[in-house]
Amino acid sequence: MSHAPLIARTxxxxxxxxxxxxxxSATIALVPTMGALHDxxxxxxxxxKKRAKRVVVSVFVNPxxxxxxxxxxxxxxTWKTDLAKLRDEEVDLVWNPDTDTMYPDGFATRxxxxxxxxxxxxxxxxxxxxxxxxxxxAKLFTQVRPDFAIFGQKDYxxxxxxxxxxxxxDLRVSIVGAPVVRERDGLAMSSRNVYLSADERRAAPVLFRxxxxxxxxxxxxxxxxxxxGAAAKAIEDxxxxxxxxxxxxxxxxxxxxxxxxxxxRMLVAARIGTTRLIDxxxx
Length: 283
Prior knowledge:
This protein is of the alpha/beta class.
């Protein structure tokens, strides 16, 4: 029978809970989330359980990573369902602070990441985003003091930003990237998929299919420009407006034009209706 996780909503309560875990000489894995949990999040929790003896999941919709025109107010919040999922996975602790706890009155410190945070991908369209992510993740790391932190590869640039930040700031946490979890038709699982209309949902898997075809053609010797151009056309023909579809070095996120440059990743961001989706695959 699954057990209900301990829930902490204040810094003193979190400190007590984490200190108790540390007293047992337990390794701790943190899974940062914004709630609206789906099977992709569950896969992160299961990977965390393989890495550490105790698992902490944070549920916090971070206002610092939303621009004024973005969906902070309407972002899906499904606390009861989330908690049921975490109970079923036998998570040890849920960190569920409110905004005033994370950003109390007078809060005046922000992290401004560079390196992979200014690669010209998400940052080109959401210049506020990685500063908000880096700040809240750094706070989560110092609050929970985990040995491991698990992030999904779907947000690939974010994974690289967090990995670089943890290394640069000597935060003593190992960042683990988890594979993208997909629906049966290939669409990457995302909390924002609930925004899609029925017609948009039917069109959405084209992102993965187009990248998969382009990657296959590149590995077969087709030029990057031609393969990516054909993928972009397929995506736009399906009703998307592309923000970007690019091949980048998998570690540095520098632009590349052939496979001799090292491990490669194809990344896409596109809008359909009012919904913006991102995805990526290895080439």
